[in-house]
Amino acid sequence: MSTMAESTSDDPSLLVICVDTNPSQGILRRNPDVLNSIINCVTAFGNAHLMHKPQNKLAVISCHHNGSKFLYPSTEKSLEIRQMDGQYEYFTFVEKSIKYNLSELIKNAPKIVNPVESMLAGCLAMALCYIVRVKKAQPVGSNLISRILVVTGSEDSAHQYMTYMNVFFTAQKERVVLDICALDNTLVLLQQGCDITGGHYLKVPQLDGLLQYLLWIFLPEPSIRSKLALPPAVKVDYRAACFCHRELIDIGFVCSVCLSIFCKFSPICTTCSTVFKVPVPIKPKKKKIKT
Q: What is the pTM assigned to this prediction?
């Protein structure tokens, strides 16, 4: 069941963009120069969100192979920004902050030999913590609409299944809408998060039109999307991932204590060490032969 935060046209909106910058993504392994184009599109989209309402807020988090880091707002020292003709000073500050912090992140990141999956679940948890912190700082009685947009070209990761589920249901409780913009692969687990929180999932047909898709699908606030001609919602696959092999399964065994899921029966739960009785098949009674 999906939920959506009630809002009015005057309520400010907080948008947290989680952009996947992991070089192990297939889309970046094939063409590393694509990252620059993706960052430019994300920056332009973030500035469009700020331009929509003067009270709107923005945060951008990079999900890299060695962790996640805020690109904007940044805790680093203030940047010396030269005013550009024809560009609003605040937009220039957002753009320069994102590019500078991303360059520092890539420069200081350890080199990898083998592909490493992106820790998107941890990045989403960081985004939720930031949203809760900003909400607590709001004046009493004010309503802040908050949502998260994930832009990624990575594959699904069943190893992060439990973290994903915790993030999805926490976002639902906090009325945070989760949107997903998949650049390369179909993301089954993140589709579940969109459906749970009332967000929108889109697999971009053409990367060249990324900015157009971001502005068309994800710039409107969730409360008015039902009035727009958006692509129809995809059919969500709600299969769970087993805890033993981290693969999506149709039928499995569930621990009655910690609710861990396994694809095969195990007498001992590997998560909470609960011991179960081995099911003994019941022999059918022999029918008496009437004489």
A: 0.82
